[in-house]
Amino acid sequence: MARIGVFVCHCGENISATxxxxxxxxxxxxxxxxVHSVDYKYMCSDPGQTMIRDxxxxxxxxxxxxxxxxxxxxxxxxxRACADAGLNPYLCEMANVxxxxxxxxxxxxxxxxxxxxxxxxxxxxxxxNEPLFxxxxxxxxxxxVLGGGxxxxxxxxxxxxxGHTVIxxxxxxxxxxxxxxxxxxxxxxxxSQCILTPRMVEVAQHPNITLHTYSELESVEGFIGNFNVKIxxxxxxxxxxxxxxxxxxxxxxxxxxIPSEFDAGVGTRTAIYVPFPQAVPNKPVIDTDNCxxxxxxxCRVCEKVCPTxxxxxxxxxxxxxxxxxxxxxxxxFEVKGCDFFPxxxxxxxxxxxTGLQFExxxxxxxxxxxxxxxxxxxxxxxxxxFISCAGSRDPAKGIxxxxxxxxxxxxxxxxxxxxxxxxxxxxxxxxxIRAGGKMYEEFVRRAIEEDHxxxxxxxxxxxxxxxxxxVVKGADTLLGGRPIDVRADLxxxxxxxxxxxxxxxxxxKLHISYDPYFFxxxxxxxxxxxxxxxxxxxxxxxxxxxxxxxxxxxxxxGAAAKVVGLFSQSELSREPxxxxxxxxxxxxxxKCVGCFLCESACPYRAIEREEIKDRQGRVLKVVAKVNPxxxxxxxxxxxxxxxxxxxxxxxxxxxVFAELVAL
Amino acid sequence: xxxxxxxxxxxxxxGEAAVVIGFGGGSAGGARPLMVRxxxxxxxxxxxDRCVHNLAVYLLKPEVKSLGKPAIVGTQAxxxxxxxxxxxxxxxxxxxxxLIPEADGGVRRLExxxxxxxxxxxxxxxxxxEEQNCLDEIASLSREERWRFxxxxxxxxxxxxxxxxxxxxxxxxxxxxxxxxxxxxPVPAHPLGNMGWHLVRAMHLAGRCVNCGECARACxxxxxxxxxxxxxxxxxxxxxxxxxxxxxxxxYALSTFxxxxxxxxxx
Lengths: 663, 267
Description:
The complex is a heterodimer of chains A (663) and B (267). Chain A is of the alpha/beta class. Chain A has five domains: 4-127, Rossmann fold (3-Layer(aba) Sandwich), CATH 3.40.50; 142-234 and 317-332 and 512-567, FAD/NAD(P)-binding domain, CATH 3.50.50.60; 248-305, no CATH class; 335-498, FAD/NAD(P)-binding domain; 579-662, Alpha-Beta Plaits (2-Layer Sandwich), CATH 3.30.70.20. In chain A, the strands form twelve sheets. Chain A has a five-stranded parallel β-sheet with strand order 10-7-6-18-29. In chain A, strands 20-27-21-22-23 form a five-stranded parallel β-sheet. In chain A, a hairpin with a 5-residue loop joins strand 25 (469-476) and strand 26 (482-488). Chain A is globular, with a radius of gyration of 31 Å. Chain A starts with a strand and ends with a helix. Chain B is an alpha/beta fold and 267 residues long. Helices cover 38% and strands 10% of the residues of chain B. Chain B has a five-stranded mixed β-sheet. The interface between A and B is medium-sized, with 20 and 20 residues.
């Protein structure tokens, strides 16, 4: 016979203001099987928990129902209290009479009645609860970091410095990401490469980090602590063990006019190339789409000049397999190109450029060696217009969010420009100046007050070319919408930050969710910002949302802390709320008929096939089996199974049915 | 006819098949299913316009399975059933030989699932003109009228489960109506129990029904169950693409997701 204890919480006044808690407790004491029913101001407080512990011991309770808030809040609290008193924690359930009742109804008899019903339902469930025990799974103490930008670098170094091995995968030929492209960084104006490249070198030299550049994630299988990943190492067409990085091949390559990705298209590179001088690793790749030998079958100049004979035209992609325990997605972002803006010329004016392209013009290592020269004719720009919110915060363009970094980098650009061209004029068209951050507002004020950048609040409606100048037609909304025309030499668009190329595909490979803009979704926007809904996969940097460098780095360290925390134990305890396939005596063996329609329904690939054999080893039946390590307890298979051969532990068919009948 | 009988005799004599599932003469001038195991009895096999039943239902019956490898006289519905059963792991390649009587009296013999896939044609006009009329009429009804129509139809149900017994896709060893812990579907043949049974069955067949019409044919009180299933199949095909019973490796529409699935059903 069940001996159930009911504990009704007032939650201060959160519940008791509209629900008569004492009456709920009294009504429940009359339900068969309920041997103890009380109410108290704060069940989650220490005295409240002690009430539960004492009742379990004194009244020999076989089940506990706490009528209080959402189980997402305090289920662990009460389950732990029950476990302390010797009761299996899974025999404790919560009835949510706060979010589901007191918060959403007026004070009335009916509200109290509904609260009573909610408790009664849980009493019927607890009556059928079985003791459950956590599932133990081993942990592979190696992390996979996807992306070698500043987020990936920080996460990898933090994990590696904690003593765990890290595999870093970067799609491009070098690590460094967008930060390596930047000239200076706000709000301190320190050189981006100067602060980043030491970290890049540290990654390359770290004994715990294995670096795979020019590689992509091919597939992921498994689950937290036990992922199996395949990495496609794209053919560089170079024997990396022989190559010394002397650069002779790139120097002699006849294909010299290819737009450089690293220079955001404002500079050029060769077909065999190292993206930038401080690249890590300093080994070239052959861009087969532009290589004369790969396209036309003739050339092989690099092969002839290579002093160590390291060129391998016949090299093919290789697949590397690895077991990892955790994955950090740090795949970063892209910026929209100028061709996204019909009003700004669809990208056909060479002197309308993106912020990223301006970074390359301003960078000492860039194609103009840091001089602000127009891409069209190479003259020094005398008047520069910066336009913020180019695409961002614009529902008409389908990008409703704020790209967050543009206000700051455009202020920085204007400042850098004024430092380089003292007599030049810089205008910034803005909607709002968003400078929330340490020293950020001061930085923008400095641009306006000390460097005399003209800030104009208003949007630019159109840009067109006239006599070699770009006419920027805008309006000053602070002066009553007065039209303003600026004849500019160069226009820089603070284009929207968007999800990286292939983000959706990667999210699907990783089985993590993403938002409508293909930024990866965190498990909870406030309390679990670096976790994903897939256990063991974490997020760092701008793959989640537009972020600046300080935020990216702190989030990467946060993700690393989560990984290190995961790796601090040799095995993991997992919630036993998983699906199990029904088994019974022969000749049925199981209600499962082996149609395996659940196999494709399972989002975690947890359904396996199990052969039931007789003593001679003959297969009598093939039935489904749930891998307890992979199952996340979502219940999709349960809903799909026609014969209800699968049950979710803790939420069995019988329990759910009893809950419904109790209503 | 003799072509079919010859083929059956060959199969049984050579031992390639232990049983030939076909049709024989029945009572009142009708045809009935016939299991031929003895080569000397192949003369009882017939095949003509009366032979409409979907014989594939027998493939998974334990009594038939225990006889050994079967050969089955295949109509299009049988072929579609075999392929659907294969996609649900119930029939494996070379588990069954299909014999297709041809118009010239000859017989096509299909040994593998691949051959069956090649021989199956898309199910198009499987409804009689009366059934089509009835379907059009249902479609013209309002939501409430349609609900009343089916309430009316289901009120006649005796819960004899002939629809289940005749359906090749109803192969579960323990049907949901026989699961009584908990008893989701009330057993008695009252309006609630009848509605529960037929709606659950229709959902269990969604994306799996091969439209053989056997359920309606088997129903002693003439409930047009096949129309219900047919409309659901059409919905599934429109929403998620694909039709049941055309491929041995098809994925189940209700358990797979593709990015071009429509979401118009979410209201």
